[in-house]
Amino acid sequence: MTAEATPSLVEATGGPAQAGPSVRGPRARTRTAYLRYVAGKLGGAAVSLLAVLVTSFFLFRLIPGDPVKYMTGGRQVSAEQLANYRKEFGLDLPMWEQFTDYCGKALTGDLGTSYQFRAPVIDKITEALPNTLLLTGTAFVLYTALGIFIGTRSAWRNGGLSDRLNTGLALTLYSIPSFWLGLLLIIVFSVGMGPIPGLFPTGGMESGGKEGFAYVVDVAHHLVLPVVTLVAVEYGQTLLVTRSALLDEMGSDYLTTARAKGLRDDLVRRRHAVPNALLPTVTLIFINLGRTVAGVILVETVFSWPGLGGLFYQALSVPDLPLVQGLFFVFAAAVIVMNTLADLIYPLLDPRVGR
Q1: Three-class HEC string of 239-259
Q2: Cys staple from 342: which of 17, 107, 156, 286, with CB 3.0 to 4.6 Å?
């Protein structure tokens, strides 16, 4: 083709030839789909938090009991004094007005004032939160690591003696009520039974009067039994979910190909099978991570652990409505936030999610 024919060809085709489809098109569509996915998850989380806020207000007003009478300490008081107490805490207002006032303050971080402690609810939560995180956080790390490790081993040796023993033990412990196991451990290892002496404290977080390293050892000593209780009850769930997910992957063609290439069995499991089977386990891990903020009410109550779970039980017995509402909202919000984070991480683990 001559140089003179080139301009006419350009004019006939309406311009210079394109180099091909833009490589940015698929990437842009993927990014848009992911942003839409994130927006949907964040919107769902916001709606869930709003629903929890509404539920926490109305649900606990069904609890029998008069918090004003509790605040009087059983003393004989006049009707005028009771009316003053109700006015002080806004209990004399119509229900709709109490609700709008509660929602307005909650959106600004003000969860009200505790009836029994006469202190801001947020201060009581902040005070007890580190104790709960110490207990449930320690247990979370242990039972998650234990559940994933034993779950992968059991699935890889499916049907063997160790698999049957591990699965049976996990199912048995998971079905045991945590408070019952805690009481049993207190009887055996705190009070002592037969030849077994009392090795651990019956409850609380510290013995008092200790500082420095001695204080750390004392807290760790008090921590043993409640942590053992939580790990024994909770690790089975992680084990069973991990085992089930890995069993679903074991028949996949890519694992057969990896073995055919001569890769060691341990390497096939660790590098190929386990990462692809972790999606359900990641969901469970994040849900359990949210529950570490909520604590475990029964375990903290049995062991008199001064955390959010014990505080919630104490508030329910009054009922201390602002404290109960605030704790319920924090518990639910922690689970919702962690579940949302798990949803946002899914596309990083499996690119097919969110497209």
Answers
A1: HHHHHHHHHHHCCCHHHHHHH
A2: 286
